[in-house]
Amino acid sequence: MGNSENIIELKHITKSFEDGFAAVNDFNLEIKRGEFVTFLGPSGCGKTTTLRMIAGFETPSSGEILLNGEDISHLPPHIRPINTVFQRYALFPHMNIYENIAFGLKQKKTPKAEIKKQVKKVLELVDLEGFEHRNVSTLSGGQQQRVAIARALVNKPEILLLDEPLGALDLKMRKEMQLELKNMHRELGITFIYVTHDQEEALTMSDKIVVMSAGEIQQIGTPEDIYNEPKNTFVADFIGESNIFNGIMTGSMKARFAGGEFITVDDVKEGTQITAVIRPEDVQIVSPSEGQIKGIVSDVIFKGMHYEITVESGRYEMVIQSTKSATVGDQVGMKVEPDGIHIMIAEDHTNYFNVDMNRDHRLEYNGTILDTSLTKIIKGSKRNEDKQLVDANGEIIDPDKIRIIAAIEPGDIKMTDDAEEVLYRASSPA
């Protein structure tokens, strides 16, 4: 038997189709009894396929689906204590609301008195008392969705699956239904498994979010974990809005990115290539002299609750959310507190190479002098009257005792056929 806390366990689930396409690949997940779990990801990421395997409409190519510790991977849908609410409500148009909701109970040969009692109870739960004899076609989209939920709940499933059930509703109705679903979950105490590509829905309703991409899990966590501590750039970019920069750790809890140096709360080894994630609401606009970096305001959009301000700083761009507006063309400073910076160890595509310091105390690579300031690279150093590089004590720095490594990102490299401009010359393979 499995862990008694877990109602559903998916172990190494893979679903491949006849053309060889793997919709879901090595999917592993534990869902606790009574949890509200959301599968979140873009179209085609495998979230609906996973839901259909739990429901029994699809059979895994490999792996196990355990319900209360028992393998149900090959159990037909009608045997499973699981009900599904679809985006297209699948109501019976020739039946009234009462008959739609009572359909499953009638199939089970439930006594009429018990059917009446259960239908009345779920109608109260979905706030449709008195609608029993209304025709389905007379209802709004939100009301039809409530009927579909009531029809699923009246069968008292252990697990309720919801496949993008709010996708057809307008924005206001969708927000109202989000809160109603959360309240239903709290009142019923059963397990909800919800599928959506809408990050706001996931953040609003879920106890646990499973972020998916290309058939694989990218991250599992609470809404707060997913938003504040994304594990990779896909999650950071997909959940909410993010400023994402490549950079390097320059010391203990210090990182350089976006043209400035920042204090961080993540203690990563010095010299580690990192990706820094900053949410727009965590950036403060200050005077240029107070900012860790500065730039020019290039765009201002009023979004109702806040202004979305874009600032260009050299080749970098920072998006900021602020309750105060800014003027396009103004120079501003930008400041971020340490807890507003999330550091992830980057997938390293950077080019590294050793750079020599020549006897004139200039940086040289491949016979070319690099246009850079050594006094900024070597802390405490300065130039004396003879333009030689000296340390804080005024002693001339020996070039043979200095090791400098340069790092160039792929996006910073330009190809040219001008022999006077190149740092390095290479031939393409024959």
Structural write-up:
By secondary structure, the chain is an alpha+beta fold. The chain has 3 domains: 223 residues, P-loop containing nucleotide triphosphate hydrolases (Rossmann fold), CATH 3.40.50.300; 104 residues, Beta Barrel (OB fold (Dihydrolipoamide Acetyltransferase, E2P)), CATH 2.40.50.140; 62 residues, no CATH class. The strands form 6 sheets. A 6-stranded mixed beta sheet has the order 6-7-8-3-9-10, with helices on both faces. A 5-stranded antiparallel beta sheet has the order 13-12-11-14-20. Strands 15-19-16-17-18 form a 5-stranded antiparallel beta sheet, with no helix packed on it. Helix 2 packs across helix 3, helix 2 packs parallel to helix 4 and helix 3 packs across helix 4. The model has no long low-confidence stretch (mean pLDDT 86).
Map the helices and strands.
Elements: E1 6-16, E2 22-32, E3 36-40, H1 47-55, E4 62-67, E5 70-71, E6 82-85, H2 97-107, H3 112-125, H4 141-153, E7 159-163, H5 171-188, E8 191-196, H6 199-205, E9 208-213, E10 216-221, H7 223-228, H8 233-238, E11 243-251, E12 254-257, E13 260-263, E14 273-278, E15 283-286, E16 293-302, E17 307-313, E18 316-322, E19 331-336, E20 341-345, E21 351-357, E22 363-365, E23 368-369, H9 374-377, E24 382-383, E25 389-390, E26 404-408
